[in-house]
Amino acid sequence: MMSINKGHPRHGRQHARALLFDKRRIFIINTVVAYYRTETVIMTADTHAQQQTLGILDRTRYLRDMLGIHGLRGFVWLLGRKRTLDFARLLGRLLYTVSGRLRKKMLLNLDLAFGTELTPDKKKRIARDACAQFCANWADVSCSGGRHLEKALAKIDIDGRENLERALERGCGAIAISAHMGAYPLLGPRLERAGYRFLMVIRDLKRPSGSAMYARCRDLIGLRAVPTAPEKQFLKATLGMLRSGGILGIIADENRRRGGVFVDFFGRSASTATGPAVLARRTGAPIVPMFMVRNPDDTQTIRIHAPIFCQRGADDHADILTATAAFTKAIESQIRQDPSQWPWNNWRWRTQPFGRDPGAKIRKRNTRKRIRRFFKRMRG
Fold first, then answer.
1. What is the reported pTM?
2. Hey, how many other C-beta atoms are within 10 angstroms of the C-beta on 335?
3. How far is residue 159's CA from residue 112's CA, in Å, rounded to a whole number?
């Protein structure tokens, strides 16, 4: 019989335990280092981040959030990318089944968008697939952090690159308009890998610990970003990026409660942010719609549409309205190609010219009010 060399790590359980021990040790070290370096995370994760110091409570919350992030990354490492995406899709379908409010919300938005164009069964299928795609997209982002980033970016193709090149020929940079489709946080890192300079516009959370956690996550995938506040610093960074011939990324598929203009979106008025059109009119930078689309084989493609040039006429409001309607139409066109790629979980048509549309949002049950009314009726 052949002798077994006990000094050499065996394949199977012993080898797996050794790898798992190494991963746990690295996870604990990273978590402790992240906790003690919370101040520098906020200051260095984003190129133009605002410097601030976290208190004890925010540091504890940040540690809790980072424990969850590192735990998720360890879980992803154990499963592998393919199994992680399959598990995420299963989780998304389960979420659609058990979350009645989310299901009603998505079906209501699909009714507002398509009306009688689609059958109820088709809308339910789209909503269920959209939930699965949403979870798979964020699982894909989790698989792409750290040393796996280059491998993940290599699986993303660029379609319509000539449209981006035509927009950049003017020397004013370009404003990339995108939506919550695919693994959209990887849009910037992929374009930078292709040789472009990219800066994403983000909105910081009210809670400092949450902003620090998201900043650290952006740092893991190599996404350079600039927060919208303070305004002076935001304008300096964005205008500087456009004047240097770079690309400024903006997600523009959400409802704008205040300060938006009303444009057509799936045949209904939708309040839309005017920031991209205002920047385009001021700097002369073309607006380039581009979207991350997931393919059936779980690769992804950046689809770049034809550039939109904002006119500079005598009526600035009309110019901004025209440009905003144009890029909103491009977003609608991309969603119509495969509605399940868009999450359908935003109250996109809630704000209307006459005020809030009560039919565009599901009324939330207020348990406290119901209890008060009950006791009020009991008192007579």
1. 0.82
2. 20
3. 31
